[in-house]
UniProtKB/TrEMBL annotation:
Chain intervals for the UniProt region annotation (Disordered): 1-26
GO biological process terms held by the UniProt record: defense response to other organism
InterPro entries (alphabetical): NDR1-like
Membrane among keywords: yes
Entry's transmembrane regions: 39-62
Cellular component terms per the entry's GO annotation: plasma membrane; plasmodesma
Protein name: Late embryogenesis abundant protein LEA-2 subgroup domain-containing protein
Entry keyword set: Membrane, Transmembrane, Transmembrane helix
């Protein structure tokens, strides 16, 4: 009669390895170190998420708004649309003055303007040379007016078609112009300061300009200016 072995006794005896005390301590140490690393990583991730949320909240609270430009008046003090002898191209010299309101709609951000230039276009061609303008600082939620004088006695070469078109518009007494302001701006919101941003402002206007007229011009159309920052 075969001797019966207790159920499972053979398997237990053959498959359970003998683990020394030093190996048990080593495994425990690895487990503890792994748990500590996961805990530290969790803290770092939480700090990064909280910092991101804080930055987002600050940006939403202090985010700056683009300034708004509007031409409110125009004047001409000199206009000479001359046709030079061939082969030289026609040229024009003129002096305009535009009063432009600048609105900072932000209640938390002030704006600093720098490296400003202004000039006048007629049908996308310059009729005045670029004129440097002084830097400017604008408080929060404020409106200021600037009155740059653009042009001078310097002749600017133009095409024959442009000279003819300008003379025709001048005869009708309605001349479309574009006032361009370029420069850079910086925002300040409390203790936060932005970097410099390029600014490009385009103001399309219709003025009542006739030959021989000097001084204030009727402003026939002056929508809000377009600005790229």
């Amino acid at each position: 009669m075969e001797e019966e072995h207790p159920k499972g006794s053979y398997n237990n005896a053959s498959h359970q390895p003998n683990i020394s005390e030093s190996e048990k301590k080593s495994r425990t140490t690895v487990y503890i170190r792994g748990g500590s690393a996961r805990f530290i990583c969790g803290i770092i991730i939480a700090i990064i998420i909280l910092a991101g949320l804080a930055a987002l909240i600050l940006w939403l609270v202090y985010r700056p708004s683009k300034p708004k430009f509007t031409v409110v008046s125009a004047a001409v003090y000199d206009l000479n649309n001359a046709t030079s002898p061939s082969p030289s191209p026609p040229a024009i010299s003129t002096t305009f003055q535009f009063t432009i309101t600048v609105r900072n709609p932000s209640r938390r951000s002030s704006i600093r303007y720098d490296r400003l230039l202004g000039y006048v276009l007629y049908h996308n061609q310059a009729i005045t040379p670029p004129s440097p303008l002084p830097p400017m600082y604008q408080e929060e939620d404020s409106t200021v007016a600037i009155s740059p004088i653009l042009g001078g006695d310097q002749f600017v070469p133009i095409s024959s078609d442009l000279a003819s078109g300008f003379a025709t518009d001048e005869a009708y007494g309605v001349v479309p112009l574009r006032v361009v302001l370029m420069g850079r701006i910086k925002y300040k919101s409390g203790v936060f300061r932005s970097g410099w941003f390029s600014m490009y402002v385009r103001c399309d206007v219709l003025v009542g300009l006739k030959k021989g007229l000097v001084g204030q011009l009727p402003l026939l159309l002056s929508p809000a200016c377009n600005i790229d920052v």
